Amino acid sequence: MFLVRVILFLMPFAIAGCSGGDMRSDFAVTYVANTGFLIESDDKKILVDALFGGFDSDWCYVPPDSAIDLMVKARPPFDDVDVIAASHMHKDHFNADYAIDHLLHNTKGILVCPAQVAETLSTSIHYSELRDRIRVVSLPLDSVVTITVSGVAVTAIRTAHLPTYEEDVSTGKSVDRHRDVEHLEFIFSLAGKAIYHSGDTYMNDVRKYESYGFGSETIDLAFVGWWDAREMLTFEQLLIRDVIRPERVILMHLLPDREPRGHPEREQSVAPEVYLPQYSMQTWTFPIKTEQGTE
Ligand SMILES: [Zn+2]
Asked: Which of 1, 16, 37 is nearest to 252 (CA)?
């Protein structure tokens, strides 16, 4: 197991890859469920937060069995995935058995994850044969690192999980039951494009996001948790609009069987293009533009 301890405090991320010249064609995004997506360029595939499921839920979307079967067997479109990324170990983002099955069927894939995710794999009988393909990103809170994984520049930002408060029965005090969750946000550099995934974070601090490097580079696509927020522009949405400034947004972590209430046009004020996933295995294809125009 690699242990990444190269810490670049408050260092802006940099987009690796080409800008102009020999550009590849489009990049494609397939929605699996919840915050899980497959991202593809001509020569690279990234699977983020998608290897999960096997439970019933009325609070998040879960991949259908057919999609899980394709993922764990590494069958198209989930074949030859280069980077498998997991933001944190919650069951609506990661399933250790599925990840092991996928890695056994996809011998080129490298898993990038926090230590808590890697620990869930360590009891597997296959762990010893897979451990060299697990890259643990272990960072202090609010720090950033960029590593190269299977030829893909992956920026990991160690942030707090969205807090969920509950009463501690022994003290009567309100405590965040997610306070110890190791959580990563990612920026993937793919075909010269920067693709941001917010995981389950709480976007509540503009200066912090500026310090991560947002605002200095173009974010071509942002996956952001949305829940239920069309009634007004929330602080999170203003942060996305004013700091992340993505060319396009795909909303994620949607609530099952409930259309977001309110005004769809409020979404459009956050980014020029906003997409709402409708069904598992829905695919979007986005053109890659150069200074000369669309190729
Ligand atoms: Zn979570």
From this structure: 37
Distance (angstroms) between ligand 1 centre and the Cα of 88 equals: 7
Q: How far is the CA of 287 from the centre of ligand 1 (A)?
A: 31
242 alpha carbon to ligand 1 midpoint, in Å? Answer: 25
Query: pTM higher than 0.85 for the full model?
Result: yes
Domain containing residue 246: 2-12+22-287
- CATH number reported for the structural domain that contains residue 169 in this entry: 3.60.15.10
Distance (angstroms) between ligand 1 centre and the Cα of 94 equals 10
Counted domains in the chain: 1
Distance 129 CA to ligand 1 centre (A): 28
Ligand 1 centroid distance, CA of 24 (Å): 34
> Ligand 1 centroid vs 26 CA: distance in angstroms?
31
Using the mean position of ligand 1's atoms as its centre, give its distance from the Cα of residue 75 in Å: 27
Element (H or E) spanning 147, and its range? strand 144-149
CA distance 66 to 53: 11
Per-residue pLDDT tens digits of the chain, which is 295 residues long = 444 444 444 445 554 444 444 444 689 999 999 999 999 998 999 999 999 999 999 999 999 999 999 999 999 999 999 999 999 999 999 999 999 999 999 999 999 999 999 999 999 999 999 999 999 999 999 999 999 999 999 999 999 998 888 888 888 889 988 889 999 999 999 988 999 999 999 888 889 999 999 988 899 999 998 765 555 567 778 888 889 999 999 989 988 877 766 667 677 778 888 898 999 999 999 987 655 544 4
65-to-33, 68, 70, 104, 238 alpha-carbon distances in Å: 12, 5, 9, 19, 37
